Predict the structure.
Amino acid sequence: MIMVQRCRNCGRRYFPARLLCAECDDMDFTTVELARARVETSTVVHVGQAARLVTLADDDLVLIGALHGEAEPGDHVPLHSRPVPGDGPIAVVPGTEPASPEHALRKESSR
Ligand SMILES: [Zn+2]
């Protein structure tokens, strides 16, 4: 799973994080978990070793990640912030980890 930012006022989620909510102009955010997302598009990038990049969506949240394994548009894949061993397809979205687990718990419980 990865961590994304959520507006405490309207609930809209963002990645990367923002200072101001585009929906309601609030500046009060929390961090929430996102376990899976739907593959929207995919493309192969040939720079050094070929990598398959995908756009991922979950409601109004759109992310870009690197696909490890096989998945087609419409498939839901688990999200991780770094590659993990396993058989099934995963999407790696770097930069989605909080500073520490305690940081995420503190932010979530202070609502
Ligand atoms: Zn908002």
